[in-house]
Design goal:
With about 240 residues, the chain is mainly alpha-helical. The chain contains ten helices and three strands, in the order ααααβββαααααα. Strand 1 and strand 2 form a beta hairpin.
Length: about 240
């Protein structure tokens, strides 16, 4: 209807547009999908259990890729990084001694994010035991996460790694993406009592409005707990 009125004014069929001040309906807010903590743990435990190229590989090569895959998924959940930030991560961006990483986000913005102990341990194992051997197959790159040829891991390969782990864990692989771990990271922080402004900084959101969508998920969780736990919540 708005387009029709604009057309009528443009063609001289109507002197004015009565739809100018009519705002279109706002689309419903789509809540981000987050995994339960138990499902995240199953996913992480299942990561790196087999070669991820769908083909048989030598045991040594499979072990190297297994260490890489576990480190990648632990890093995604432990830092809330976007998949582009993870595959774009250079070795110098990591400071495992300090337990922190510099992430290069959208619009050229950078942020310093802490790395949890589990992610640090997985990264240390990968960097010491796997990355040097993978790097030897390539021409030299500063990338943290490498493919089997020694080059920088691609976004598509990261998706494949996650999909394989989800299938191994018995989860719905089609419903899980690298961003699912970022959503889970934010939701679990808020469930644990983190301030929304802190979560905004950790996620690298330019506006807290973007982060506040995660609070809607948390409110739903609180309602479920209340309905199950409070003696006067049920009829």
């Amino acid at each position: 209807m708005r387009g029709l009125h604009r057309f009528a004014v443009r063609e001289g069929l109507s002197p004015d547009d009565p739809s100018t001040d009519v705002a279109p309906p706002a689309p419903a807010k789509r809540l981000p999908k987050a995994l339960a903590v138990e499902d995240v743990l199953r996913l992480l435990d299942a990561s790196g259990t087999a070669p991820t190229n769908g083909q048989a590989a030598p045991a040594a090569s499979g072990d190297l890729l297994a260490l890489r895959d576990r480190a990648l998924l632990e890093f995604l959940y432990g830092t809330g990084a976007r998949i582009s930030e993870a595959v774009g991560l250079d070795r110098d961006d990591l400071d495992l001694a300090d337990g922190s990483v510099v992430l290069h986000g959208k619009g050229g913005r950078t942020r310093l994010v802490p790395i949890g102990s589990y992610a640090s341990a997985a990264l240390s194992a990968y960097l010491v035991r796997a990355r040097p051997a993978l790097a030897a197959a390539g021409r030299g790159t500063a990338a943290t996460f490498l493919n089997a040829r020694g080059g920088r891991l691609s976004r598509q390969s990261a998706w494949t790694i996650l999909r394989h782990a989800a299938e191994t864990a018995g989860l719905d692989a089609a419903a899980i993406s690298p961003h699912t771990l970022r959503h889970s990271y934010a939701t679990h922080l808020l469930d644990g009592g983190a301030d929304v402004r802190v979560v905004q900084e950790l996620l690298g959101h330019a506006s807290v409005t973007t982060t506040q969508v995660y609070t809607l998920v948390t409110v739903e969780h609180l309602r479920e707990v209340y309905a199950l736990a409070h003696p006067r919540a049920r009829a």
